[in-house]
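Hi R.,

Here's the chain you asked about this morning:
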Amino acid sequence: MEFILQPLTLLTFFPLVGALVILFMNSEMKTAIRWVALVTSLITFGISLWTLSMFTASNPDLQLEAKYPWIAVAGWNIYYYLAVDGLSILLVLLTAFLTPISLLSTWTAVEDRVKDFMIFFLLLEVGMMGVFLAQDLFLFYIFWEFTLVPMYFLIGLWGGPRRIYAAVKFFLYTMAGSILMLVAILFLGIKTDTFNVPTMLARLPDLYATTITPQTQMWLFIAFAAAFAIKVPMWPLHSWLPDAHVEAPTAGSVILAGVLLKMGTYGFLRFNIALFPDATVQAAPWIALLATIGIIYGAAVSYAQTDVKKLVAYSSVSHLGFVMLGLFALNPQGVAGAILQMINHGLSTGALFLLIGMIYEQTHTREIKVYGGLWKITPIFGTIMLIASLSSMGLPGLNGFVGEFTILLGAFGSKAIGNPWYAGISAIGVIMAAVYILYMFQKVFLGPAGEITHHHELKDLNWRELITVIPLVIFMFWIGLYPAPFFNILAPAVEKLLSALPL
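And here is the predicted structure, written out as C-alpha coordinates:
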Protein backbone atom coordinates (compact mmCIF):
# COMPACT_ATOMS: atom_id res chain seq x y z
CA MET A 1 0.00 0.00 0.00
CA GLU A 2 2.86 2.34 0.87
CA PHE A 3 4.16 1.87 -2.70
CA ILE A 4 0.85 2.94 -4.27
CA LEU A 5 0.37 5.96 -2.01
CA GLN A 6 3.86 7.28 -2.67
CA PRO A 7 3.26 10.75 -4.22
CA LEU A 8 5.54 10.22 -7.26
CA THR A 9 4.07 6.77 -7.99
CA LEU A 10 0.58 8.27 -7.82
CA LEU A 11 1.66 11.16 -10.03
CA THR A 12 3.15 8.85 -12.66
CA PHE A 13 0.52 6.13 -12.79
CA PHE A 14 -2.77 7.86 -11.95
CA PRO A 15 -3.45 8.58 -15.68
CA LEU A 16 -3.29 4.78 -16.14
CA VAL A 17 -6.33 4.46 -13.82
CA GLY A 18 -8.28 6.81 -16.12
CA ALA A 19 -7.11 4.85 -19.19
CA LEU A 20 -8.33 1.56 -17.61
CA VAL A 21 -11.73 3.08 -16.73
CA ILE A 22 -12.14 4.33 -20.33
CA LEU A 23 -11.10 0.88 -21.64
CA PHE A 24 -14.22 -0.68 -20.10
CA MET A 25 -16.58 2.07 -21.29
CA ASN A 26 -18.81 1.83 -24.35
CA SER A 27 -17.10 3.64 -27.26
CA GLU A 28 -20.43 5.36 -28.12
CA MET A 29 -20.36 7.27 -24.81
CA LYS A 30 -18.09 9.94 -26.28
CA THR A 31 -18.92 12.80 -23.90
CA ALA A 32 -18.56 10.58 -20.82
CA ILE A 33 -15.19 9.31 -22.11
CA ARG A 34 -14.00 12.88 -22.62
CA TRP A 35 -15.03 13.80 -19.08
CA VAL A 36 -13.29 10.77 -17.54
CA ALA A 37 -10.05 11.64 -19.39
CA LEU A 38 -10.29 15.33 -18.42
CA VAL A 39 -11.06 14.64 -14.74
CA THR A 40 -8.21 12.08 -14.61
CA SER A 41 -5.74 14.62 -15.98
CA LEU A 42 -7.03 17.33 -13.60
CA ILE A 43 -6.58 15.01 -10.60
CA THR A 44 -3.04 14.25 -11.87
CA PHE A 45 -2.41 18.00 -11.99
CA GLY A 46 -3.73 18.20 -8.41
CA ILE A 47 -1.25 15.47 -7.38
CA SER A 48 1.57 17.46 -9.04
CA LEU A 49 0.63 20.53 -6.93
CA TRP A 50 0.59 18.29 -3.83
CA THR A 51 4.08 17.10 -4.82
CA LEU A 52 5.19 20.73 -5.19
CA SER A 53 3.85 21.54 -1.70
CA MET A 54 6.14 18.82 -0.23
CA PHE A 55 9.14 19.90 -2.31
CA THR A 56 11.88 21.92 -0.55
CA ALA A 57 13.36 24.41 -3.02
CA SER A 58 16.49 25.08 -0.95
CA ASN A 59 17.46 21.37 -1.02
CA PRO A 60 19.54 20.54 -4.15
CA ASP A 61 19.30 16.76 -3.65
CA LEU A 62 16.73 14.25 -4.89
CA GLN A 63 13.48 14.43 -2.91
CA LEU A 64 10.29 12.40 -2.32
CA GLU A 65 12.13 9.22 -3.34
CA ALA A 66 10.22 6.05 -4.19
CA LYS A 67 12.84 3.29 -4.30
CA TYR A 68 11.97 -0.40 -4.42
CA PRO A 69 13.92 -3.45 -5.70
CA TRP A 70 12.35 -4.43 -9.02
CA ILE A 71 14.36 -6.86 -11.15
CA ALA A 72 17.02 -9.06 -9.54
CA VAL A 73 18.96 -11.18 -12.03
CA ALA A 74 22.39 -12.84 -11.59
CA GLY A 75 23.36 -10.55 -8.72
CA TRP A 76 22.08 -7.43 -10.49
CA ASN A 77 19.49 -5.24 -8.84
CA ILE A 78 17.43 -2.96 -11.04
CA TYR A 79 15.33 -0.57 -8.97
CA TYR A 80 11.97 1.04 -9.43
CA TYR A 81 13.37 4.43 -8.46
CA LEU A 82 11.50 7.71 -8.84
CA ALA A 83 12.62 11.04 -7.37
CA VAL A 84 12.34 14.73 -8.10
CA ASP A 85 14.71 17.69 -7.75
CA GLY A 86 15.02 21.30 -8.92
CA LEU A 87 16.04 20.15 -12.41
CA SER A 88 12.83 18.18 -13.02
CA ILE A 89 10.05 19.59 -10.81
CA LEU A 90 9.05 22.39 -13.22
CA LEU A 91 8.95 19.97 -16.18
CA VAL A 92 6.75 17.60 -14.16
CA LEU A 93 4.38 20.47 -13.38
CA LEU A 94 4.39 21.56 -17.05
CA THR A 95 3.43 18.03 -18.16
CA ALA A 96 0.58 17.83 -15.64
CA PHE A 97 -0.56 21.35 -16.60
CA LEU A 98 -0.55 20.92 -20.39
CA THR A 99 -2.29 17.52 -20.46
CA PRO A 100 -5.79 18.68 -19.33
CA ILE A 101 -5.43 21.76 -21.56
CA SER A 102 -4.63 19.52 -24.54
CA LEU A 103 -7.57 17.22 -23.76
CA LEU A 104 -9.94 20.17 -23.47
CA SER A 105 -8.82 21.37 -26.92
CA THR A 106 -9.97 18.06 -28.47
CA TRP A 107 -13.55 18.38 -27.18
CA THR A 108 -15.02 18.99 -30.62
CA ALA A 109 -11.92 18.45 -32.79
CA VAL A 110 -11.73 14.66 -32.29
CA GLU A 111 -14.94 12.82 -33.20
CA ASP A 112 -13.59 9.50 -34.52
CA ARG A 113 -12.45 6.79 -32.12
CA VAL A 114 -12.64 9.11 -29.12
CA LYS A 115 -12.14 6.18 -26.74
CA ASP A 116 -8.84 5.10 -28.34
CA PHE A 117 -7.61 8.72 -28.53
CA MET A 118 -8.14 9.36 -24.82
CA ILE A 119 -6.51 6.06 -23.79
CA PHE A 120 -3.41 6.81 -25.88
CA PHE A 121 -3.23 10.37 -24.54
CA LEU A 122 -3.37 9.26 -20.90
CA LEU A 123 -0.76 6.56 -21.57
CA LEU A 124 1.46 9.25 -23.11
CA GLU A 125 1.19 11.24 -19.87
CA VAL A 126 2.35 8.18 -17.90
CA GLY A 127 5.43 7.87 -20.14
CA MET A 128 6.32 11.58 -19.97
CA MET A 129 6.03 11.69 -16.18
CA GLY A 130 8.19 8.59 -15.90
CA VAL A 131 10.94 10.13 -18.06
CA PHE A 132 11.21 13.20 -15.80
CA LEU A 133 11.09 11.21 -12.54
CA ALA A 134 13.07 7.99 -13.22
CA GLN A 135 16.42 7.78 -11.42
CA ASP A 136 17.38 4.33 -12.67
CA LEU A 137 18.75 4.27 -16.23
CA PHE A 138 16.96 1.01 -17.09
CA LEU A 139 13.62 2.42 -15.86
CA PHE A 140 14.32 5.72 -17.65
CA TYR A 141 14.91 3.87 -20.91
CA ILE A 142 11.61 1.97 -20.58
CA PHE A 143 9.66 5.22 -20.06
CA TRP A 144 11.63 6.94 -22.85
CA GLU A 145 10.74 4.24 -25.38
CA PHE A 146 7.20 3.90 -24.07
CA THR A 147 6.35 7.51 -25.05
CA LEU A 148 7.00 6.59 -28.67
CA VAL A 149 4.06 4.22 -28.94
CA PRO A 150 1.10 6.48 -27.97
CA MET A 151 2.56 9.43 -29.92
CA TYR A 152 3.00 7.21 -32.99
CA PHE A 153 -0.69 6.28 -32.88
CA LEU A 154 -1.86 9.84 -32.08
CA ILE A 155 -0.13 11.11 -35.24
CA GLY A 156 -0.83 8.01 -37.36
CA LEU A 157 -4.57 7.67 -36.61
CA TRP A 158 -5.79 11.23 -35.99
CA GLY A 159 -3.32 13.25 -38.05
CA GLY A 160 -3.56 15.01 -41.42
CA PRO A 161 -3.36 13.59 -44.95
CA ARG A 162 0.35 12.57 -44.69
CA ARG A 163 -0.01 11.21 -41.17
CA ILE A 164 1.42 7.72 -41.82
CA TYR A 165 4.59 9.18 -43.37
CA ALA A 166 5.00 11.63 -40.44
CA ALA A 167 4.34 8.96 -37.78
CA VAL A 168 6.80 6.45 -39.28
CA LYS A 169 9.46 9.16 -39.73
CA PHE A 170 9.01 10.29 -36.10
CA PHE A 171 9.25 6.67 -34.89
CA LEU A 172 12.33 5.72 -36.94
CA TYR A 173 14.30 8.86 -36.12
CA THR A 174 13.66 8.58 -32.40
CA MET A 175 14.27 4.83 -32.36
CA ALA A 176 17.62 5.16 -34.16
CA GLY A 177 18.98 7.50 -31.48
CA SER A 178 17.54 5.41 -28.66
CA ILE A 179 19.42 2.26 -29.76
CA LEU A 180 22.76 4.06 -29.39
CA MET A 181 21.71 5.27 -25.95
CA LEU A 182 20.76 1.71 -24.94
CA VAL A 183 24.26 0.44 -25.84
CA ALA A 184 25.81 3.24 -23.72
CA ILE A 185 23.45 2.47 -20.80
CA LEU A 186 24.46 -1.22 -20.89
CA PHE A 187 28.17 -0.28 -20.99
CA LEU A 188 27.80 2.08 -18.01
CA GLY A 189 25.72 -0.47 -16.11
CA ILE A 190 28.34 -3.21 -16.55
CA LYS A 191 31.26 -0.88 -15.65
CA THR A 192 29.63 0.64 -12.56
CA ASP A 193 27.72 -2.49 -11.53
CA THR A 194 24.47 -0.51 -11.20
CA PHE A 195 21.81 1.32 -13.24
CA ASN A 196 20.97 3.49 -10.26
CA VAL A 197 21.90 7.06 -11.29
CA PRO A 198 23.03 8.48 -7.87
CA THR A 199 25.17 5.36 -7.20
CA MET A 200 26.57 5.55 -10.74
CA LEU A 201 27.49 9.22 -10.21
CA ALA A 202 29.36 8.27 -7.02
CA ARG A 203 31.35 5.47 -8.74
CA LEU A 204 32.17 7.08 -12.09
CA PRO A 205 34.94 9.54 -10.94
CA ASP A 206 37.13 6.61 -9.80
CA LEU A 207 36.49 4.75 -13.06
CA TYR A 208 37.37 7.84 -15.11
CA ALA A 209 40.61 8.10 -13.16
CA THR A 210 41.52 4.42 -13.76
CA THR A 211 39.74 2.31 -16.41
CA ILE A 212 37.44 4.48 -18.61
CA THR A 213 39.58 6.55 -21.01
CA PRO A 214 38.66 10.12 -22.08
CA GLN A 215 37.96 8.76 -25.61
CA THR A 216 35.50 6.21 -24.22
CA GLN A 217 33.82 8.91 -22.13
CA MET A 218 33.42 11.02 -25.29
CA TRP A 219 31.90 8.06 -27.19
CA LEU A 220 29.44 7.51 -24.34
CA PHE A 221 28.59 11.21 -24.40
CA ILE A 222 27.93 11.02 -28.17
CA ALA A 223 25.73 7.90 -27.79
CA PHE A 224 23.49 9.60 -25.23
CA ALA A 225 23.61 12.89 -27.16
CA ALA A 226 22.39 11.15 -30.35
CA ALA A 227 19.13 10.10 -28.67
CA PHE A 228 18.57 13.45 -27.01
CA ALA A 229 19.62 15.63 -29.97
CA ILE A 230 17.07 13.89 -32.23
CA LYS A 231 14.35 14.45 -29.65
CA VAL A 232 15.18 18.16 -29.09
CA PRO A 233 15.57 18.30 -32.23
CA MET A 234 18.92 19.93 -32.87
CA TRP A 235 20.01 20.98 -36.32
CA PRO A 236 20.71 18.93 -38.54
CA LEU A 237 18.58 16.13 -36.98
CA HIS A 238 15.37 18.15 -37.04
CA SER A 239 13.68 17.13 -40.26
CA TRP A 240 11.12 14.81 -38.59
CA LEU A 241 9.68 17.66 -36.49
CA PRO A 242 7.84 19.85 -39.06
CA ASP A 243 6.22 16.75 -40.58
CA ALA A 244 5.12 15.43 -37.19
CA HIS A 245 3.76 18.82 -36.10
CA VAL A 246 1.88 19.57 -39.31
CA GLU A 247 0.22 16.16 -39.45
CA ALA A 248 -0.47 15.72 -35.72
CA PRO A 249 -3.87 16.66 -34.29
CA THR A 250 -3.90 19.91 -32.27
CA ALA A 251 -3.59 18.19 -28.89
CA GLY A 252 -0.70 16.09 -30.25
CA SER A 253 1.12 19.22 -31.47
CA VAL A 254 0.65 20.97 -28.10
CA ILE A 255 2.05 18.05 -26.12
CA LEU A 256 4.80 17.39 -28.69
CA ALA A 257 6.04 21.00 -28.55
CA GLY A 258 5.26 21.50 -24.87
CA VAL A 259 6.67 18.34 -23.34
CA LEU A 260 8.11 15.72 -25.70
CA LEU A 261 10.83 17.98 -27.13
CA LYS A 262 11.83 18.87 -23.54
CA MET A 263 12.59 15.22 -22.89
CA GLY A 264 15.63 15.73 -25.18
CA THR A 265 16.90 18.88 -23.44
CA TYR A 266 16.18 17.29 -20.04
CA GLY A 267 18.22 14.23 -21.08
CA PHE A 268 21.24 16.44 -21.80
CA LEU A 269 20.75 18.19 -18.46
CA ARG A 270 20.19 15.09 -16.32
CA PHE A 271 22.52 12.55 -17.95
CA ASN A 272 25.02 14.01 -20.42
CA ILE A 273 26.21 16.87 -18.19
CA ALA A 274 26.08 14.84 -14.95
CA LEU A 275 27.54 11.51 -16.13
CA PHE A 276 30.24 12.74 -18.55
CA PRO A 277 31.75 15.93 -17.07
CA ASP A 278 35.02 15.96 -19.04
CA ALA A 279 33.34 15.15 -22.36
CA THR A 280 30.69 17.81 -21.65
CA VAL A 281 33.30 20.55 -21.24
CA GLN A 282 35.10 19.31 -24.38
CA ALA A 283 31.91 19.17 -26.45
CA ALA A 284 30.46 22.50 -25.22
CA PRO A 285 31.85 24.71 -28.06
CA TRP A 286 30.65 22.22 -30.69
CA ILE A 287 27.15 21.97 -29.18
CA ALA A 288 27.06 25.79 -28.95
CA LEU A 289 27.97 25.97 -32.67
CA LEU A 290 25.17 23.55 -33.66
CA ALA A 291 22.72 25.40 -31.36
CA THR A 292 23.61 28.75 -32.96
CA ILE A 293 23.18 27.33 -36.48
CA GLY A 294 19.82 25.87 -35.34
CA ILE A 295 18.69 29.28 -34.00
CA ILE A 296 19.45 31.10 -37.25
CA TYR A 297 18.34 28.25 -39.55
CA GLY A 298 15.03 27.70 -37.70
CA ALA A 299 14.22 31.42 -37.83
CA ALA A 300 15.13 31.76 -41.54
CA VAL A 301 13.11 28.72 -42.60
CA SER A 302 10.13 29.82 -40.46
CA TYR A 303 9.91 33.03 -42.46
CA ALA A 304 9.69 31.05 -45.72
CA GLN A 305 6.64 28.95 -44.67
CA THR A 306 3.20 29.29 -46.22
CA ASP A 307 1.50 27.01 -43.68
CA VAL A 308 1.06 28.75 -40.30
CA LYS A 309 1.48 25.48 -38.35
CA LYS A 310 4.72 24.68 -40.17
CA LEU A 311 5.97 28.20 -39.35
CA VAL A 312 5.44 27.58 -35.63
CA ALA A 313 7.00 24.09 -35.95
CA TYR A 314 10.22 25.48 -37.47
CA SER A 315 10.26 28.22 -34.82
CA SER A 316 10.67 25.39 -32.26
CA VAL A 317 14.00 24.44 -33.88
CA SER A 318 15.12 28.04 -33.29
CA HIS A 319 13.76 28.27 -29.72
CA LEU A 320 15.22 24.93 -28.66
CA GLY A 321 18.57 26.09 -30.08
CA PHE A 322 18.50 28.78 -27.36
CA VAL A 323 17.85 26.13 -24.72
CA MET A 324 20.84 24.06 -25.89
CA LEU A 325 23.06 27.16 -25.97
CA GLY A 326 22.08 27.93 -22.38
CA LEU A 327 22.64 24.35 -21.17
CA PHE A 328 26.15 24.16 -22.63
CA ALA A 329 27.16 27.60 -21.39
CA LEU A 330 27.68 25.48 -18.25
CA ASN A 331 27.23 28.37 -15.85
CA PRO A 332 24.32 29.10 -13.46
CA GLN A 333 22.79 31.87 -15.63
CA GLY A 334 22.85 29.79 -18.82
CA VAL A 335 21.53 26.55 -17.31
CA ALA A 336 18.80 28.21 -15.16
CA GLY A 337 17.75 30.30 -18.20
CA ALA A 338 17.65 27.15 -20.34
CA ILE A 339 15.39 25.27 -17.89
CA LEU A 340 13.08 28.28 -17.62
CA GLN A 341 13.05 28.60 -21.42
CA MET A 342 11.94 24.95 -21.67
CA ILE A 343 8.88 25.93 -19.65
CA ASN A 344 8.41 29.17 -21.62
CA HIS A 345 8.52 27.39 -24.94
CA GLY A 346 5.93 24.87 -23.70
CA LEU A 347 3.59 27.73 -22.74
CA SER A 348 4.09 30.03 -25.77
CA THR A 349 4.30 27.46 -28.54
CA GLY A 350 1.62 25.33 -26.86
CA ALA A 351 -0.69 28.39 -26.93
CA LEU A 352 0.13 29.08 -30.62
CA PHE A 353 -0.68 25.50 -31.62
CA LEU A 354 -3.93 25.61 -29.61
CA LEU A 355 -5.02 28.82 -31.31
CA ILE A 356 -4.09 27.57 -34.79
CA GLY A 357 -6.10 24.41 -34.06
CA MET A 358 -9.14 26.50 -33.00
CA ILE A 359 -9.22 28.50 -36.25
CA TYR A 360 -8.46 25.37 -38.32
CA GLU A 361 -11.55 23.70 -36.83
CA GLN A 362 -13.65 26.43 -38.45
CA THR A 363 -11.81 26.96 -41.76
CA HIS A 364 -10.02 23.63 -42.44
CA THR A 365 -7.01 25.42 -43.88
CA ARG A 366 -3.71 26.67 -42.47
CA GLU A 367 -2.48 28.55 -45.55
CA ILE A 368 -1.39 32.05 -44.51
CA LYS A 369 -2.36 33.64 -47.85
CA VAL A 370 -6.11 32.83 -47.58
CA TYR A 371 -6.47 34.67 -44.27
CA GLY A 372 -6.38 38.40 -43.59
CA GLY A 373 -8.39 40.88 -41.56
CA LEU A 374 -9.23 38.33 -38.86
CA TRP A 375 -8.83 40.84 -36.05
CA LYS A 376 -12.03 42.70 -37.01
CA ILE A 377 -14.08 39.52 -37.03
CA THR A 378 -12.53 37.69 -34.06
CA PRO A 379 -11.03 40.35 -31.74
CA ILE A 380 -10.66 38.08 -28.67
CA PHE A 381 -8.91 35.41 -30.74
CA GLY A 382 -6.68 38.10 -32.29
CA THR A 383 -5.74 39.58 -28.89
CA ILE A 384 -4.74 36.23 -27.37
CA MET A 385 -2.85 35.29 -30.54
CA LEU A 386 -0.96 38.59 -30.31
CA ILE A 387 0.04 37.91 -26.68
CA ALA A 388 1.19 34.36 -27.54
CA SER A 389 3.11 35.67 -30.59
CA LEU A 390 4.83 38.43 -28.59
CA SER A 391 5.67 35.88 -25.90
CA SER A 392 7.20 33.57 -28.51
CA MET A 393 9.40 36.32 -29.98
CA GLY A 394 10.61 37.40 -26.52
CA LEU A 395 9.00 40.78 -25.85
CA PRO A 396 10.05 42.28 -22.47
CA GLY A 397 7.30 41.81 -19.89
CA LEU A 398 6.48 38.32 -21.21
CA ASN A 399 8.04 34.98 -20.35
CA GLY A 400 10.13 34.44 -23.51
CA PHE A 401 12.24 37.52 -22.83
CA VAL A 402 13.31 36.37 -19.36
CA GLY A 403 14.47 32.98 -20.61
CA GLU A 404 16.30 34.23 -23.72
CA PHE A 405 17.93 37.17 -21.88
CA THR A 406 19.25 34.87 -19.13
CA ILE A 407 20.55 32.36 -21.72
CA LEU A 408 22.37 35.07 -23.70
CA LEU A 409 23.78 36.46 -20.44
CA GLY A 410 25.13 33.00 -19.59
CA ALA A 411 26.46 32.35 -23.11
CA PHE A 412 28.31 35.72 -23.29
CA GLY A 413 30.25 35.00 -20.14
CA SER A 414 30.70 31.27 -20.65
CA LYS A 415 34.16 29.77 -20.03
CA ALA A 416 33.04 26.46 -21.54
CA ILE A 417 31.93 27.93 -24.87
CA GLY A 418 34.90 30.29 -24.77
CA ASN A 419 33.65 32.62 -27.50
CA PRO A 420 31.10 35.43 -27.07
CA TRP A 421 30.40 35.36 -30.83
CA TYR A 422 28.01 32.43 -30.40
CA ALA A 423 25.87 34.55 -28.10
CA GLY A 424 26.18 37.56 -30.43
CA ILE A 425 25.02 35.63 -33.50
CA SER A 426 22.25 33.93 -31.48
CA ALA A 427 20.97 37.37 -30.46
CA ILE A 428 20.29 37.99 -34.17
CA GLY A 429 17.88 35.02 -33.89
CA VAL A 430 15.75 37.09 -31.48
CA ILE A 431 15.38 39.82 -34.15
CA MET A 432 14.63 37.21 -36.81
CA ALA A 433 11.93 35.72 -34.55
CA ALA A 434 10.27 39.12 -34.41
CA VAL A 435 10.36 39.28 -38.23
CA TYR A 436 8.65 35.94 -38.96
CA ILE A 437 6.18 36.16 -36.05
CA LEU A 438 5.05 39.69 -36.91
CA TYR A 439 4.94 38.79 -40.63
CA MET A 440 2.59 35.89 -39.81
CA PHE A 441 0.45 38.04 -37.53
CA GLN A 442 0.18 40.87 -40.05
CA LYS A 443 -0.81 38.51 -42.90
CA VAL A 444 -3.43 36.62 -40.89
CA PHE A 445 -4.97 39.29 -38.68
CA LEU A 446 -4.43 42.69 -40.25
CA GLY A 447 -4.90 44.16 -43.71
CA PRO A 448 -7.78 43.51 -46.10
CA ALA A 449 -10.03 40.50 -45.63
CA GLY A 450 -8.82 37.32 -47.37
CA GLU A 451 -10.96 34.73 -49.13
CA ILE A 452 -11.53 32.75 -45.91
CA THR A 453 -12.93 35.74 -44.13
CA HIS A 454 -15.30 36.30 -47.08
CA HIS A 455 -16.55 32.74 -47.35
CA HIS A 456 -16.83 31.68 -43.71
CA GLU A 457 -19.04 32.87 -40.89
CA LEU A 458 -16.16 32.90 -38.42
CA LYS A 459 -16.96 32.78 -34.72
CA ASP A 460 -14.80 34.22 -31.97
CA LEU A 461 -13.51 32.05 -29.14
CA ASN A 462 -16.20 30.33 -27.03
CA TRP A 463 -16.04 29.73 -23.28
CA ARG A 464 -14.39 26.30 -23.60
CA GLU A 465 -11.67 27.67 -25.88
CA LEU A 466 -11.07 30.62 -23.54
CA ILE A 467 -10.77 28.29 -20.53
CA THR A 468 -8.27 26.24 -22.55
CA VAL A 469 -5.93 29.10 -23.45
CA ILE A 470 -6.28 31.70 -20.62
CA PRO A 471 -4.20 29.67 -18.06
CA LEU A 472 -1.28 29.74 -20.50
CA VAL A 473 -1.60 33.53 -20.91
CA ILE A 474 -1.58 34.00 -17.11
CA PHE A 475 1.73 32.13 -16.83
CA MET A 476 3.23 34.11 -19.74
CA PHE A 477 2.70 37.32 -17.79
CA TRP A 478 3.63 35.78 -14.42
CA ILE A 479 7.03 34.49 -15.59
CA GLY A 480 7.59 37.65 -17.65
CA LEU A 481 6.94 40.02 -14.73
CA TYR A 482 7.99 37.97 -11.70
CA PRO A 483 10.25 35.01 -12.54
CA ALA A 484 11.91 34.87 -9.09
CA PRO A 485 9.86 31.90 -7.68
CA PHE A 486 10.80 29.79 -10.71
CA PHE A 487 14.52 30.63 -10.50
CA ASN A 488 14.46 29.95 -6.72
CA ILE A 489 13.22 26.40 -7.35
CA LEU A 490 15.97 25.76 -9.93
CA ALA A 491 19.00 27.48 -8.43
CA PRO A 492 20.25 24.99 -5.76
CA ALA A 493 20.00 21.95 -8.06
CA VAL A 494 21.73 23.85 -10.92
CA GLU A 495 24.60 24.90 -8.60
CA LYS A 496 25.03 21.29 -7.46
CA LEU A 497 25.06 19.97 -11.05
CA LEU A 498 27.68 22.48 -12.20
CA SER A 499 29.92 22.06 -9.14
CA ALA A 500 30.97 18.61 -10.41
CA LEU A 501 32.27 19.95 -13.74
CA PRO A 502 36.04 20.46 -14.32
CA LEU A 503 35.77 24.18 -15.14
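One quick note: The chain is about 75% helix and 5% strand.

Cheers,
M.
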